[in-house]
Amino acid sequence: MIQPAELVSFLSFLQKIQPLTPSALEAIYSLCSLIAVRKNQNLQEIGMRCKTIYFVKEGLARIFYLKGGNEVTEYFAFENDLIIRAESLFTGKPSLKAIQALEDTVFIGIPADQLFSLFDTFPQIERLFRKIIEQAYVHTVNRMETIQFHSAEERYAQLVEEKPNLIQRIPLKYIASYLGITQVSLSRIRASIR
Amino acid sequence: MIQPAELVSFLSFLQKIQPLTPSALEAIYSLCSLIAVRKNQNLQEIGMRCKTIYFVKEGLARIFYLKGGNEVTEYFAFENDLIIRAESLFTGKPSLKAIQALEDTVFIGIPADQLFSLFDTFPQIERLFRKIIEQAYVHTVNRMETIQFHSAEERYAQLVEEKPNLIQRIPLKYIASYLGITQVSLSRIRASIR
DNA sequence: CTGATTATTTAACATTTGTAAAAGGATAAG
DNA sequence: CTTATCCTTTTACAAATGTTAAATAATCAG
């Protein structure tokens, strides 16, 4: 049985987005499970249908996929970040993307179908979820702008500024593909900054 | 007074995403207005807060913004496409983006605050809107992947395949910035394809 | 139709980024 | 400690894209 204390950070994360009544909170609480994944292990493999919404309770993870034999990092999730493979969850297709723990990581998982079936009983939960997607959408639009119209050097500088600890915690090669460049190119950029 | 026939395409567009009861449809219907904009005129200027959700009934439009004095096209909307400046609508900040008609265009507009206030009475409308955002989100994630990991030539080829008539209807310079490259570069790509 | 304006292409050159291979550092297992 | 492995940097060269300017081509207003 999960101790309520284990979920405090997650539930308060949700409450900040959309206040929830005790019964709605309880309904979400009852769907949560904890999953511990060791460093460099995959929580979800490529090719599985994504049916779970994850939240990083402790640790660090990434979503990545394969492109011409190379791993491409799409997203990093730190403590208190959601991690959702939207392109599978919302389309029902198998995901081409994997979720990997980059440190020993504890995830909170919620089965998506069970969560979605709460929507009819608790419109406030559907509202919560709508707001989460809105935020993710705005974030993605802004990220696209950054990728499309800034140089790799600017993108790196911006990333370092936004998430300084990312550089310490994540191998360079993962950061490079997240920025849309090669590892060699990123190394060159770092050399030119010094 | 708007004739119901004028809104058939829009309402059936919505119904395909989420079936709606007659009273919910009527509620949406009563919020709609028609806006005709001449070619090359702006429906919304840069700097305004975005408080309206638009749908292209006839014609063609784009969202663009300024980057170092140059116009950058973010999105093209054809007949029966929604056009929403999400980054302003969902954050309340003034939009840095303009909406411009690229042909004589008729928009259907819905005031966002009035639409959102229907959510409490009609959870199905909130659901409709959630699904719309989900679709937009998935679309944007896929587009980002395309931009980040395909060459400009591949991106152009893909665009031509997906929307062949886009090439005929839209000036090259707008397409170039949509693809994230310069006009000169796109012209070169076209020459190399022939 | 004509001139003016705008859109597109071409050319020459600079810069950025990619590719492949090797060298240097860091880390983990025995 | 030593070796093996993995990560990062460096080097040399190739390819892609940007920049600037000029040359065509297309479009629009009178």
Could you describe the 3D structure shown?
The structure is a homodimer of 194-residue chains. Chain A contains nine helices and eight strands. The mean pLDDT of chain A is 93. Chain A has a single domain, classed as Jelly Rolls (Sandwich), CATH 2.60.120.10. The first copy, chain A, has 194 residues and is α+β, with helices and mostly antiparallel strands. In chain A, helix 8 (172-179) crosses helix 9. In chain A, strands 1-8-3-6 form a four-stranded antiparallel β-sheet. A four-stranded antiparallel β-sheet of chain A has the order 2-7-4-5. In chain A, strand 4 (61-67) and strand 5 form a beta hairpin. The A-B interface holds A 67, 72, 74, 86-87, 90-91, 119-120, 123, 126-127, 129-130, 133-138, 140-145, 147-149, 180 and B 67, 72, 74, 86-87, 90-91, 119-120, 123, 126-127, 129-130, 133-138, 140-145, 147-149, 180. The structure holds a DNA duplex (30 and 30 nucleotides).
Report the strand count of chain A. Answer: 8
Any idea of the CATH topology of chain A?
A: Jelly Rolls
Computed over alpha carbons, the radius of gyration of chain A is: 18 Å
Structural class call of chain A reads alpha+beta
CATH class of chain A: Mainly Beta
- For the largest beta sheet of chain A, what order do the strands appear in spatially? 1-8-3-6
Quaternary organisation of the protein chains:
homodimer
Distance between the termini of chain A: 51 Å
InterPro entries (chains A, B): cNMP-bd_dom (IPR000595), cNMP-bd_dom_sf (IPR018490), RmlC-like_jellyroll (IPR014710)
Pfam families (chains A, B): cNMP_binding (PF00027)
Organism (chains A, B): Algoriphagus lacus
Protein name (chains A, B): Crp/Fnr family transcriptional regulator
